[in-house]
Amino acid sequence: MIYQFAGVEAINTAIIDQWPSLCKHKQWVAASTCTACFVLALPMCCSGGVYLFTLLDWNTASWAILIIGFAEVALVGWVYGMCQVWCY
Q: Which of 12, 49, 64, 81 is the most buried (most CB within 10 A)?
């Protein structure tokens, strides 16, 4: 449950950072985010949910995530310089 809260808060923070005028309507942003997540999760509760889960599991959990992670680390090291990233 705590991981869901952290995920929703991360999405809300990204939305409010992108559109600062929504800062005074944080409760509506949170309600909209939760409603969108609920609607997007409804297909998982239907008869094809197991198929969708298997499809997402096979296509998203692969070597691509590891390769993208290494590429991000290399890019940060290249842009900022290794000494600035690792040296204090």
A: 12
